[in-house]
Amino acid sequence: MATQYKNAYSTAWDEQPDLLTLDQALDMDMGRANRLYAAHLNRYLLQIYAVLGLDGLDVRAAEGTVLHLADGRQVLDFSTGMGAAGLGHNHPRIVAAERLCHGRQVLDIIKLAPHKLQAALAYNLAQILPDPLDTSFFATSGAEANEAAMKLAERIQTPKGKTKFLCMRGAFHGKTHGALALTTATDVHTGFLLGVPKENVVYVPYGDIDALRRAIGAETGAQGNGIIAAIIEPIRGTACEVPPPHYLEQFAGLCRDNDILSIFDEVKVGCGRTGRFCAFMHEDTVPDIVTLAKTLGGGKRAIGAMVTSRDLFERAYGNRNDCNLHSSTFSGIGETCAVAIETLNTLHEDGLIDNARLMGDYLEARLEALHIKYPRTLLEVRGRGLFRAVRFNFGEDLAAKLVDISSNPLFLTYQTVLIGALARQLFEQHRVLVHFQPGARDMLHFMPPFTVTREEIDQLVDGLDSILARGIPDSVLRFVAGNVKRLVSGGRGKG
């Protein structure tokens, strides 16, 4: 595969580069794919996939909730790219929208004129979101949408002498430099200079309105408070934590009363996952700024959106000199906007938001029944709609049996072994793909597409029931047996 140059400064080739064709890439076996992944991407991430039994996940086709593997197996995807495929994989309406764009040779990129598909998408979001949220900026990810929200808030508030952001402990807002400073769910800061210095961030416990009130008071002096904006996930993503009733209303009210802009990060749960278009719509409140991503791309496109009021946007960028201070080359690509337009129409016309609520209620009921059946093992069921999690009791008795295993660098804590064992058993024995978060290693998360059926939910819950009936130690033994060579070699496995 190596390419030879005539010399280090020449642009001429001794020979043509040995490039893979698209057909070769699509038909590549996983053994070779993993070797290339280890050599040219991230071999340590590949090791983690291998520990979970997923390095051989050779998906040849995907539709709805179902992944069709090369070996003939069918696996249910209850992870959906951490919630990005809310409509399921390759939804027919999304595929048709892409084909329509191809057939009409739709213009994707133009930076010297307005794009009608951007205008249409922004209009649709304004029709769905409550007033005064009517003005959008498009990005390519949730983190970038949050960066856009932060920069807009800074443009408005820093002339007043404000210098700080307020965020929740245990929050996740992204890994770009600015959003990273407001992400506390897990240690992803080490070795990085933060876009917002830690001394410019106020941290508050999630769901504690009194703590929020005290924090704002502590930052308030004779000239007012120094907080630019307060950002919150309406459902805390890492821990699948729903705040107390009316908390979001009180949160937005405190912000409004203290000249603090409120930012609701709906990247993970927005666009219908909770049974309303946005999770904050379960309460009688509206933020100053909302961010969206994941489901907005229909499971096919990378797109994020920051939506705010016309008034705030004008205050930040309201003249010809400043109107393009924040921009991005790939913001609002034509076909991406087309897919997002079709996604919004599909959500509403096909009743998928209602189905997320109905199937979410069914999933909750089935998980609660497991909680009653295994009260010592399952501590609680969390979430709303089709964002659900179960929290396990990984007590000291189990930990004591895993001291040697947890010393392996692949396993940061014994909880990682336990939760990894459960996830691997669900995949290998029951053909269901689920995930867990580094910041909450005692929980399994379930984020199926909004098209999920009762039968598919039954397959997940029945599988989990079977695993719990055998006991967690049984799953751990199977997990360890599947990773003995890797454990003995200190994590130096395939790749």
From TrEMBL:
GO molecular function, one term: transaminase activity
Designated name of the protein: Aminotransferase
Sequence similarity: Belongs to the class-III pyridoxal-phosphate-dependent aminotransferase family.
Record flagged with keyword Transferase: yes
Pfam families noted in UniProt: Aminotran_3
Cofactor(s), names only, from the UniProt record: pyridoxal 5'-phosphate
Keyword Transferase: yes
Keywords noted in UniProt: Aminotransferase, Pyridoxal phosphate, Transferase
Taxonomic source organism: Sphingobium quisquiliarum P25
PANTHER family, alphabetized: ACETYLORNITHINE AMINOTRANSFERASE, MITOCHONDRIAL, AMINOTRANSFERASE CLASS III
Xref: CDD domains: OAT_like
